[in-house]
Write a structure and sequence with these properties.
Shape: rod-shaped
Order of helices and strands: HHHEEHEHEHEEEHEHEHEHEEE
GO cellular component, one term: protein-DNA complex
Protein name: LysR family transcriptional regulator
Family: Belongs to the LysR transcriptional regulatory family.
Organism: Pollutimonas subterranea
CATH class of the largest domain: Alpha Beta
CATH architecture of the largest domain: 3-Layer(aba) Sandwich
Number of helices: 10
Number of strands: 13
Strand content: 15-25%
InterPro entries: LysR_HTH_N, LysR_subst-bd, WH-like_DNA-bd_sf, WH_DNA-bd_sf
Radius of gyration: 32 Å
Structural class: alpha/beta
CATH superfamily of the largest domain: Periplasmic binding protein-like II
Largest sheet: 6 strands, mixed
Length: 286
């Protein structure tokens, strides 16, 4: 028994005659009659008593009407769900994100998803760059919000979300004397708090090179693998943090922020949305 036969059966039930049903279905009446006959043969029962007045459903037909109607409705829902999932409007989306994404990129994406894809279920995982790269390779996440550059085995699609300059996160006591500005030389002398080299190697080496250009040595007092941990270390007067400028929107006790007077050689802090090929359409939400 074919799906088309079930649809033809319901059309005859609803319209009462083969001629009206064939007109509604936009098929020839003989073709509809043959389809119903094949369904009857497949089931081994008579479904309609045909007469000049129309096609009257038999007891056997009446017994299956509700089941056929329900089955066709469920199938329509399944077709709609499949198309919506393919288009990125339904299903499950697992997103990995660095802490930098929490303050702009993620809220913006969540609003867009709520508006355009309310049927999409989200799972969110805060993790570092290296963790996200492995999670994408293993299928643990579908989209990663991470810093560039990245090294992931296999094909990926990328979208640049932001390119932010670095700003100095300074202990409050030191900041009182700086009037909102500080030099790389002063930062190098005080000592830095940086993300670990293996976490963001491009940024790490870019900072080191910018400081060497100022004839200074890179002095790292502490490594911290999360932005909030960097701020906590700064508040504890362990050193000066180098963070993206959006961090100024965060109020953290014991920390002030200073522009870097001669920081033009510092690398930018880029945020990307990265997906595997299967989830490429999901990047439109970011």
């Amino acid at each position: 028994m074919q799906l088309s036969q079930l649809r033809h059966f319901m059309a005859v039930i609803e319209h009462g005659t083969l001629s009206k049903a064939s007109e509604k279905l936009d098929i020839a009446q003989p073709a509809l009659s043959q389809s119903i006959s094949r369904m009857e043969k497949s089931l081994g029962v008579i479904l309609f008593e045909r007469s000049r007045r129309g096609a009257s459903p038999t007891v056997a037909a009446q017994a299956i009407v509700d089941d056929v109607r329900h089955g066709l409705l469920k199938l329509a829902e399944a077709e709609q769900k499949a198309r919506a999932t393919q288009a990125g409007r339904a299903g499950l989306l697992k997103i990995g994100l660095v802490s930098s994404a929490l303050f702009d990129a993620l809220p913006r994406a969540l609003k867009k998803i709520k508006e355009l894809a309310p049927g999409l279920t989200l799972e969110l995982f805060e993790m570092g760059n290296e963790e996200q790269a492995k999670a994408l390779e293993q299928g643990i996440i579908n989209v990663g919000l991470m810093h560039s550059p990245i090294a992931i085995n296999g094909r990926t699609h990328q979208k640049i979300l932001s390119q932010d300059k670095l700003i100095a996160a300074v202990p409050e006591k030191l900041a009182r004397h700086k009037r909102g500005r500080i030099t790389l030389e002063e930062m190098a002398q005080y000592g830095l708090i940086l993300y670990p080299r293996e976490q963001l190697p491009h940024m790490y080496f870019g900072i080191a090179e910018a400081i060497r250009k100022r004839k200074c040595e890179l002095k790292v007092n502490q490594h911290a693998n999360r932005t909030m941990t960097v701020l906590a270390c700064v508040a504890g007067e362990m050193g000066i943090g180098l963070l993206p400028s959006w961090i100024q929107s965060v109020s953290f006790p014991g920390v002030d922020f200073c522009e870097i007077d001669n920081g033009h050689d510092l690398p930018s802090f880029d945020l990307l949305a990265v997906s595997t090929p299967q989830y490429k359409t999901m990047l439109d939400y970011f």
